[in-house]
Amino acid sequence: MITKYLTVAAALAAMLTVTASVAHADEPDITGQAGSDAYEIVGEQANASVESSGTASGVSGNSVNEPVYIDYKWLSVCAGSALTDQPSVQVDCGAAQVCADPGDRLFRLWGQLPAGQWVALGSQCLGAPPEAADTPRPRITPAMVLNEIRRIGLPTLQARTQPEGKTLVNFDTIFYTEAQPFSATVTLLGQQVDITAEPSSYTWHHGDGATTTTSSPGAPYPATDITYRYARADTTVRPRVDVTYTARFRVNGGEWRDIDETVTIAGTEGSLRIAEAHATLSGDYG
Amino acid sequence: MRGSRAQGSIRRPVLRLLATVVTLVTAVALTGCQSNPEPPPVEAAPSPSPSPTEPTTEPAPTMPAEAQGTSRAAAKAFVRHWIAVLNYAGPNGDAEAIRSISSQDCAACTGIADFIEDVHQAGGTIEGDGWRPRRMTVVSETQQEMVLDVLTVVTEQRVRTEPAAKVKTFPGGDRVKTFWVSRVNGAWTVTRLDQPQ
Q: What residues of chain A lie within 8 A of the CB of B21, using their CB?
């Protein structure tokens, strides 16, 4: 078998030399390859070239457009497939030697879409069934992680004021909150996923219809990072702060990936009485 | 991508390469799956092809009416037509005939068309009876594409790369060709062709 390949390779090398003068820049190189015909050689050579460059067919480079597979399986092509509703006997391999090496068998890699449907991804002649290590791992997408974050839930923050519980009209009331980073480790599609989320913005609902958005959580007195003056007295408002988190994740200890979409968690409402201060003279003037 | 009985240095890297690229396969969607199994038919020989051994002045095979539409039968008719065009293009040097019904994303299609073009521009010849589809099955189907296995008899091929060159003979054999076909602007096109060796 090897001798045959070497013979073919030598002949094809000579052929390539001849064609080089008219070749395209990306001319298929058939040196060292063997196949049932030249089309098989140049076709698979071209496929391998594209795969190694990471620019396979139909790919825009935009991960949003890439299909997501939640599971993979290798199955013998000759044995058919129970994965789809297609005919169970796909290729009558018993009637044909479909791989160049008589000992090889043709296996197909299947990918399962999130809705459950299995689709054929590629096939290969192999001498033994592929092992687990040869099977790609399902891709964890930002959308999957985001769903998990929403399922777990992120910390709810409480708007704090100074003065607390009761403040004055036309007075700089201090707002702040105690922000908390979030981290968790979950298992998605059988893989360990580390998630972290940090507050990136705060929307303060002062309770009188006014809102303010800040990038900091504020701080208690003597800091005056975030203040608000109520214009109407003798009322009780219910202020709250909604926090927007940005998150990132990594799969199996790999590189961290940012999640473009943010998650906003509404805060719990507090109670704040707005009072009016009256100047009153007191004392013994006698 | 050739498999091997040997474990390790040959097989694993190849598999991992395939594993790496599976997410780069043409985008697919979820709907459009049909549930009616169909018996695997014995495929007829491709529609008219010229004499395989002598270049002719005949035009390329025309798209059969059966290839119109989006059904599995239409997809099969289109693949049969693609093979007929390949069988015509090789001896006649009409690489454009193959390009016109293949996506630019189909690397194997482009590789074959380039090869045909290069041989003929150098004054060489490609001879043989080409591919004869024996059995064709729709393997999977989404709204965007169909994947078809074609059990193909690859006939002996003789390639002369220039007038003075020795003829190189390829033995042929039974092969499974896997076609990914999609509808683009209302017409079928081959977006990927795998020929496992």
A: 51, 54, 56, 122
